[in-house]
């Protein structure tokens, strides 16, 4: 994942910003509901990207991956419209408690740019609905140059999206964050539709750490810098999530990326271990391999 990559990460202030006031207001509505779910995973299960993660002789990467993590950010559906047969194949390879988080196909977001997308949205949703109980949440990532001038286009597409398929949305253009009215309109739309507002933590785009939730669900895409600062950044996230849980957070979806993905399982294991400790959870800690740059820690 090259988005937000910088040449000198040691020069970046990785401090997490304060919460937007709306976040506490949203979470307080759910403070007395005694429930919490956490799903943590990587963005890929491909052996070439996660070199050193799979034991020698592993025959099926997804089957092994799904026994180490409880979720996957499924980017394969971005590059090709999924079909129900492929979805069922993926589903049947994983344990009962595993969840998929499929990205919406680029035909919808990048090629058609949300114009005349009713049919492809239906096709996409019909396909991913075959994940059934293993569907965590779909997510829509808009192109970097998709700007607020096309807000009505986005609103139309989101209102058309079937509510039976949970959805999170990621906007990337700087104008969504720099203009207060634009930001308010976007966040209010997601709140009205009960959709999650994706938070991206990446070195070169600190504005995407808006810390403004629109539902009691937080979807975080963490991008490590392949730098010694990565574990401390994850520790800071554990502290913030603990705070949000105390305020009423119901679901955590957290996915670890790296510019060089080889370290993603190790970082995810570090995050899960601390999350279990601080939130009294019992998520499985993935196997750590000695050859995945242990000097990072």
From TrEMBL:
Pfam annotation, one family: DUF72
InterPro entries in UniProt: DUF72 (IPR002763), UPF0759_sf (IPR036520)
Name the UniProt record assigns to this protein: Uncharacterized conserved protein YecE, DUF72 family
Organism (species): Moheibacter sediminis
């Amino acid at each position: 994942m090259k988005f937000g990559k910088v040449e000198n990460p040691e020069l970046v202030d990785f401090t997490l910003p304060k919460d937007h006031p709306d976040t506490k207001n949203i979470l307080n509505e759910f403070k007395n509901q005694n429930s919490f779910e956490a799903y943590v995973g990587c963005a890929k299960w491909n052996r070439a990207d996660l070199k050193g993660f799979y034991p020698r002789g592993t025959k099926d990467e997804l089957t092994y991956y799904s026994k180490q993590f409880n979720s996957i950010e499924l980017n394969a559906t971005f590059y090709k419209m999924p079909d129900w047969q492929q979805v069922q194949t993926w589903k049947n390879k994983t344990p009962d408690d595993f969840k998929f988080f499929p990205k919406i196909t680029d035909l919808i977001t990048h090629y058609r740019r949300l114009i005349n997308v009713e049919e492809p949205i239906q096709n996409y949703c019909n396909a991913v609905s075959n994940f059934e109980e293993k569907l965590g949440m779909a997510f829509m990532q808009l192109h970097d140059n998709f700007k607020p001038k096309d807000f009505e286009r986005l609103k139309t597409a989101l209102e058309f999206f079937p509510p039976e398929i949970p959805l999170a949305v990621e906007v990337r253009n700087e104008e969504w964050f720099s203009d207060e009215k634009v930001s308010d309109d976007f966040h209010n739309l997601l709140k009205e539709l009960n959709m999650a507002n994706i938070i991206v933590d990446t070195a070169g785009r600190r504005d995407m750490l808006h810390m403004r939730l629109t539902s009691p669900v937080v979807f975080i895409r963490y991008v490590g810098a392949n730098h010694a600062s990565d574990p401390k950044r994850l520790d800071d996230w554990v502290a913030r999530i603990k705070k949000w849980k105390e305020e009423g957070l119901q679901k955590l979806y957290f996915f670890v990326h790296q510019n060089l993905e080889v370290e993603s399982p190790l970082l995810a294991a570090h995050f899960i271990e601390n999350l279990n400790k601080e939130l009294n959870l019992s998520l499985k800690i993935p196997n750590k391999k000695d050859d995945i740059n242990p000097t990072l820690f």
